[in-house]
Protein 1
Amino acid sequence: MVSSTNLVQAAGAPLEKINASYGAISGSMLPIWVTKEAKLFEKQGLELNLVYISGGPRAIMSLIGGSVQFVNHSGMPALEAYQRGADTALIASPMNQLEHSLVVQKNITSVEQLRGKILGMSTAGSLTDVLLREGLRLNGIPEKDVTILPVGDLGARLSALQTGRLHGVIVAGVQTLAATKMGFKQLINFSGSGILVRRAYVLKNQETTLKFLKAWIEGIYLVKTKPEFSLGVLRKYVATQDVEVLNSIYGHYKELLMTKPMPHPRVAKSMFYLLSRTNPEIPAGNPEGFVDGRFISQLESAGFFDEMNRQYGK
């Protein structure tokens, strides 16, 4: 185990207090968990209050309301808010992809067998709702041929699948691996998360934003180079002692995570396509404007990534 005291230096000045949330018990959240546990935010002069907010719409409401300044979540709910006039933005994305699966009962072996079945997602209008409906459409299953129910968070969905109340559910991260281990099948796969903000906040607090990103990005480097420490953090947050599951999650995300998390406009275009298929009333516009890569570009110009590569031997 890597001791956090060896990873940071004590800050002499008072720490600036900020709030951030993460949106899933998933390996995609490992960088922010590791950053928090390794005290890398303190290294940058920040005191981070990190909270779990289940469901994208709730997290974005907290962001717009000002109770949190940074959200680690899929960008889709924030993109919808942006298209409706909010000043939300995606400023960093270490994966640039989604990471959900439709997991079904053992006796369902094809998408065609979903007809007449009961399927679960988190809440109406959430990312899981959008993904489920679009996944069905892309596989030739009209929504009228299934029953879609809001069930709640990832744990509630997996529990409903175990009890047989639902025939299939959208899950992510550790729940996907746990469900597969139980014998349930992954029938439709969506393979992301990033740092979401309000433009009004980051433009007024550019130095704080850069400090947050420096800490979080160093957390990505730490994930990729310190497996023992990272696995210990993962064990704490996903609340499992199953070594096989932990190693599978860690190995998967260690390879997926990019150390230079530049957000790409093409990802916003893809997310807008998904949104518009299921929410045609969403105003048309410029989804690429949702992406703001200026802070990652500033860090690159300042030599931050070169410094990280030297420090972590990349």
Protein 2
Amino acid sequence: MTTERVSEILSWYGSDNPGTLTNLARLLTHGALAGTGRLVILPVDQGFEHGPGRSFAMNPPAYDPRYHFELAIEAGCNAYAAPLGFLEAGAREFAGRVPLILKLSNHDVLLEERDPAQALTGSVGDAVRLGCVGIGFTIYPGSEHRLTMYGQLRALAEEAKAHGLAVVVWSYPRGSGLSKEGETAIDVTAYAGHIAAQLGAHVIKVKLPSAHVEQAAAKKVYEKEGVPLGTLAERVRHVVQAAFDGRRIVIFSGGAADTDETVFEQVRAIRDGGGFGSIIGRNSFQRRKPDALRFLKTVMDIYAGAKK
């Protein structure tokens, strides 16, 4: 159902055509959080990004692409995001049961790189053919290849919007321009979200920011202006503010598998800081399905206000 909150969010995307707005509405009005303006998306690109053994051996049913469709549907996720092969393996069988996002770019870990890039592994045409609501694309601010990725994203975003699709951007700082700590620094994370918004993203995925400030120039401004960054909720608020003062949907990654209570505390901080939700992969599909369903229900209940 389209609620006042959903209508408000759609109004932020005034240049988009009815097809794109309809697909954004499908994303926002599906699942357990339908109509709330909050999102919980299941992403399963880790098999490509980290290797199948590292991703699925702890829960062998997850080797089957259909398992992830079923998990997203049974949990009431807003959408399911994956690379081409995984979506092709279940798009017909599960057609119309969960909104799909096709990840158009991917990266493997078979070569150690200081400055990673992404391979194009799908197309806008594939997304249309599979009935997706949108495309996904990763950029690496901080990599020496970042400008090429920015150009690729801009072109793909233009094509996707022309076909009525939403654009979801994984904006993950890394590369020789940053320290390891700087990859999740608050100034860098906010900058990464802003870059994604400037390149035409409707939905922006970033990692949760730490209190570290990487750039000396940013640190000087933060200290002079007294920007509150002491708590995770305050840092989430700043990242959302950097994405057009909260007029772009910003969601936060779940990261590596962690304890339930740690994840729930992070979800509370995202909620309290004005974030729009979570995109949780490994913390969901690397556990047995009954446990995963209980876990995701708690996350959604926190966002819905049904659980503190």
Protein 3
Amino acid sequence: MNLLRRNSWRCIQTNQKNNFIVGIIIALVVVFSYNVEANPVDFIEGLPNLAIVIEEMSQVDADLFGIAFWAMFETIQMAFIGTIVGVVIALPLSMLAARNLNSKYVYGPVRAVLAAIRTFPSILWAILFVIMVGGGAFAGVLAIIMYTVGFVAKLQYEAIETIDSDPMDAISSIGVSKWQLIRYVVIPESASHLLSQVLYMFDYNVRQSSILGLVGAGGIGFYILGHIKWFEYGKAATFMIVIFVTVLIIDWVSVKVRDKYIVKSQHGMEVKAK
């Protein structure tokens, strides 16, 4: 009976604590909304303007689909190159940044560099590289590489740090080198995480590449910006439709790859779509 009372009291205390945290979060949302001048009335009053834009975007210019597909193809190439090169660079950096593989004198500076890379979003990297190498797809590829390096390296060293220490200790006890430890334990144990990260980054980079064109870094975004500047929303919608279809296809392919290689390797079975 006393045990039941103690458990009930603990549940009450836990619920009170959770309610207190939720209350703090709600209060912060209200305060921050006031600080950024978020006004729902302005949003409601702006809905008629949104309706006008949607009506104009419904007037799609079918003659531009050919140009849109070629621009999307360039965008996919940018994302593919940027993702692959970025992952190749990020993988060794993630090994150096893992706390369970290196001393603080190694992983500390490496993490600082990766944090500095992540400080700038890809569009700011694109502006920098446009200044360096001029406008075009190459500047966009360089921006994607930088963002991919910072993002994937962080996710990967966090995945490495979650690896069970028992296999690593067992391999280390027989006197293997660090390279052999990485090759036979770290990489196999974190491979599914890496594949998942590659798929996510490619999907993200395709969508991000569509925006980089807004600052002259190539891709389909260049055409979208040009039409929006002249209020040609119907023509811009043509390119947006192509982006939407491409993202759906990439998402479908990613799901198939995840089900076949990632989920199957983690659970020992293949997922069948219902």
Protein 4
Amino acid sequence: MATNSQKRSFIEGEIDSKFHRQSQKRSPFGIAMGFFATIGRGWKMSKLSMSVVKKDPELLVYMLICGFLSLVAMIGMSMPQYLKQSWAIDSAGQMTPAYMGFVFAGYMVISIVVTFWNSAIVANSHIRLTGGDPKFMDGFSAAMSKIHIIVIWGIIAGTVGLLLKLLNQAAREREGGAAIVSMILTAIGAAIWWMMTFFMIPHMIIEGKGVGDSLKSSKQMFYKSWGENITSGMGIGLITGFFVIVIALLSFVMIVALGPLWIVGVVIGALGISLAIAWGNAAEQVAVTALYLYSKNGEMPQIYQDLGMKQFHMTINPPTA
């Protein structure tokens, strides 16, 4: 049995240890260490999310279909202007109101297409991350069952995205300090919108909520795990960017080496870059689904634990001061 002096020493040691931990958290060094730890966890999660895509290649197929349909829509939007059709371009070379409406409708179609296939990825990821073995039609069927919500959200997201793009272009056309301030404000607005909608699709597809409830839940869930959300997205973007650069360099070497057959290098490069981007985009949705499950359950999905990520050190219910 412990003596009083031993008990007192133990209590004093615990107090000192707790004080040291709290001091470290408040110190610049502790804050910096916490930041880099969060970056490390996000980077690791990025790699694990990409490995999940490897297990389910249909996720890549989803993204390739999404990319193809989006490309078709973009070509369809630009053809009237390219052909200088009278209903699209006036005598001064400006877009007519009718063509502006046509382009807006095209943007909405692209936004709906992207939302639909991202929803299919989230649905299949949820099956995989909860122990199931998803098939191609599982994600497609899940997205089709929520098509009405997907269309509504696709139009909203597309409209906001288009407005942010127009504001950014307007900011670039300004001069001096006004241009800088406008660009900063536009960037802040885009960042806030991204944060608020980070978990939109899981709430719509997995929980079956409407657009309003999903937006509210998405915002609340993001603020519980903002560091992990941001760094996981950064990690996936950096990995994807690295592979894109490598593929582009190899393609350039092939183009130079093949001489008259340079087109072969172009085709191989285009296919490689498309595959890398599709892989990265699919991994982003897998990471969103994994973080959604972690925020809901307080633990990483089993497949992440099997690959070495036992926990994410995320506070589900942060203590109040």
